[in-house]
């Protein structure tokens, strides 16, 4: 798992999201086209529609009315009755109350459209080009589509995928860092106990590694170091320092502790500095750091639980108060 592979996978996911989004947009446009069962024609006497034949279902179409003189524009759904359909043709009443200008224009447009069904014996139905008050109306067919919303959702999903493309790598790095922070104090403490028991450093390192499980990341790396040292007859300290440097290049916060331990071992080998006391002091610092890290995680967990506990409290209050409220 590296950045190049993750970038390639993210690119494939983004391509799939865009392809699916295009298909959904096309389907939406097709459905929007089918939602209008009537067609608006441009004739010599103006725009007109053909009324459905007798016995057929009413025709549906969405029209946009533009009244330039009133700076008014709005969509209306028109239902055109079939030939000979004798439904209630009563026009809507304005209830003689005062209306705002926009409301009055909207009422006049709706009244005009409603009057189209007053005479269902006419096959060719023309749209009026003016309001009752004389203002010109411009008609156009409108398709109700969700193209903008779908495109926005596709862009948001693609941005989220691109932003989180390195999330698995960060998660893996965090898990490795947590493993080192959790296991390093115990490993150093084990080295100190074995050194105090009279073992030399290489023997203590081998014993500490052999008694541990390689399922954990940190001990898995220690097992690899132990195997390489045995196979190549190399230096344990050199392998341990290389591991510390690799963690530092990966941006691991625990690399500082690894480098300090490597420096202590190197000073013992090159300068004869007391090893056990230095490792003992380092072990105490590591345990303090681990304790502090656990406390921080505990406080963070408490913060995350605040909202769920608040919701549970509100639910409990509602359950407790509801019987009293119902009796009022």
Biggest sheet: strands side by side, in what order?
A: 1-2-5
Task: Summarize the biggest pleated sheet.
Answer: 3 strands, antiparallel
Low-confidence parts: none
Number of helices: 9
What string, H for helix and E for strand, traces the elements in order? HEEEEHEEHHHHHHH
What is the global morphology? elongated
Features:
three-stranded antiparallel sheet, 328 residues, 9 helices, mainly alpha, elongated
Provide an overview of this structure:
The protein has 328 residues and is mainly alpha-helical. The protein is 62% helix and 10% strand. It has a three-stranded antiparallel β-sheet, with no helix packed on it. β1 and β2 form a beta hairpin. α4 packs across α5 (201-210) and α5 (201-210) crosses α6 (217-232). The longest helix has 53 residues, at 275-327. The protein is elongated. 15% of the residues are buried.
How do you describe this structure in short?
This protein is mainly alpha-helical. 62% of the residues lie in helices and 10% in strands.
Write the layout of secondary structure elements.
Blueprint: H1 3-35, E1 41-43, E2 46-50, E3 59-67, E4 72-80, H2 101-114, E5 124-126, E6 138-141, H3 147-163, H4 167-196, H5 201-210, H6 217-232, H7 236-249, H8 255-271, H9 275-327
Antiparallel strand pairs: 1-2, 2-5, 3-4, 3-6
């Amino acid at each position: 798992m590296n950045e190049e592979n993750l970038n390639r996978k993210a690119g494939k996911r983004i391509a799939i999201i865009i392809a699916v989004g295009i298909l959904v947009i096309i389907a939406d446009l097709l459905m929007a086209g089918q939602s209008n069962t009537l067609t608006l024609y441009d004739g010599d006497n103006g725009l007109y529609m053909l009324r459905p034949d007798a016995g057929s279902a009413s025709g549906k179409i969405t029209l946009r009315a533009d009244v330039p003189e009133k700076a008014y524009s709005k969509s209306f759904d028109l239902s055109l009755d079939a030939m000979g359909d004798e439904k209630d043709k009563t026009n809507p009443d304005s209830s003689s109350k005062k209306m705002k200008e926009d409301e009055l224009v909207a009422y006049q447009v709706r009244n005009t459209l409603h009057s189209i069904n007053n005479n269902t014996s006419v096959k060719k139905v023309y749209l009026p080009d003016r309001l009752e008050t004389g203002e010109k109306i411009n008609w156009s067919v409108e398709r109700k589509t969700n193209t903008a919303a779908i495109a926005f959702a596709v862009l948001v999903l693609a941005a989220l995928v691109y932003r989180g493309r390195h999330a698995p790598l960060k998660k893996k790095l965090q898990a490795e860092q947590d493993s080192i922070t959790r296991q390093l104090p115990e490993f150093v403490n084990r080295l100190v106990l074995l050194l105090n028991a009279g073992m030399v450093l290489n023997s203590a390192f081998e014993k500490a590694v052999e008694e541990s499980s390689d399922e954990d990341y940190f001990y898995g790396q220690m097992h690899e170091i132990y195997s390489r040292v045995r196979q190549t007859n190399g230096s344990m300290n050199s392998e341990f320092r290389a591991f510390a440097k690799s963690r530092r290049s990966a941006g691991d916060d625990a690399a500082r502790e690894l480098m300090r331990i490597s420096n202590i071992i190197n000073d013992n080998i090159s300068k004869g500095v007391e090893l056990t006391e230095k490792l003992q002091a380092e072990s105490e610092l590591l345990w303090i750091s681990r304790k502090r890290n656990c406390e921080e995680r505990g406080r963070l967990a408490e913060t995350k639980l605040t909202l769920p506990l608040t919701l549970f409290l509100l639910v409990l209050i509602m359950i407790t108060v509801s019987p009293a409220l119902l009796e009022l």
